[in-house]
Amino acid sequence: MEDLATKIIPLVQFLIPGFVTTVIFYWLSESPKPSQFERTIQALIGTGLISILVLGIELLAKWIGTNWQVLGPWNDYVATIWSVVCAILLGLSLAFAANNDTLYALARKLRFTSRASYSEWCLVFRKYPKRCLVLHLLDGRRLCGYPRVWPTDPSTGHFLLEQAAWIVDDTYYECSGEFVLIGNSDIHFVEVLK
């Protein structure tokens, strides 16, 4: 049993940067979480990329130490710190790219795909974030306002509307509260106004 622990602990320590990257990515992006198996494969790929980055940093640090000034010895402790830093930066970079459609925009420009990095639902709200919305409720009522928060999934979550008003026979009746929170399950469809 002790032999198994001595083999597993270094493996887990080796994989931690990849898991840190995937955790940060899925916390900050609107990407749907895949199965645990797929996330483990992504963590393995992330660990491979981070290992290559750390190797590059090690070579650069040694070159700087040889040609200019020694910053300190390169050891396992320094490599671990750099791997965690690279994992955090890689996770943040991937989340930024996913949330801003950066990589898919480049892929669309190069005609590799026609997809966006997020759903059409999120694309509309990201493209027109300051536009007034009219929410058509399942019971026929209409509510308009400026979205401050919207659900990432068209079937769950809530809208947080500012300056909300009910529309009755094309007359607007302002809500008394500063904000209105309404469940997406009560909404039939959404209009985006100019």
How would you characterize this protein structure?
This protein is an alpha+beta fold. It has 2 domains: 2-109, no CATH class; 120-192, SH3 type barrels, CATH 2.30.30. Helices cover 51% and strands 20% of the residues. The chain contains 5 helices and 6 strands, in the order H-H-H-H-H-E-E-E-E-E-E. The protein has helices at 2-28, 36-67, 76-99, 102-109, 120-127; strands at residues 133-137, 142-149, 158-168, 171-174, 179-183, 187-192. Strands 1, 2, 3, 4, 5 and 6 form a 6-stranded antiparallel beta sheet that branches. A hairpin with an 8-residue loop joins strand 2 (142-149) and strand 3 (158-168). It is elongated and about 75 Å long. The mean pLDDT is 87.
Q: What's the short story on this structure?
A:
The chain contains five helices and six strands; from the N terminus they run αααααββββββ. With 194 residues, the protein is an alpha+beta fold.
List the helices and strands and how they pair.
Blueprint: H1 2-28, H2 36-67, H3 76-99, H4 102-109, H5 120-127, E1 133-137, E2 142-149, E3 158-168, E4 171-174, E5 179-183, E6 187-192
Antiparallel strand pairs: 1-2, 1-6, 2-3, 3-4, 3-5
Average pLDDT, to the nearest integer?
87
Q: What distance separates the N and C termini?
A: 67 Å
Largest sheet: 6 strands, antiparallel
Helix content: 40-55%
Query: What number of structural domains do the residues give?
Result: 2
Task: Extract low-pLDDT stretches.
Answer: none
**Basic shape:** elongated
Can you give keywords for this protein?
194 residues, alpha+beta, 51% helix, 2 domains
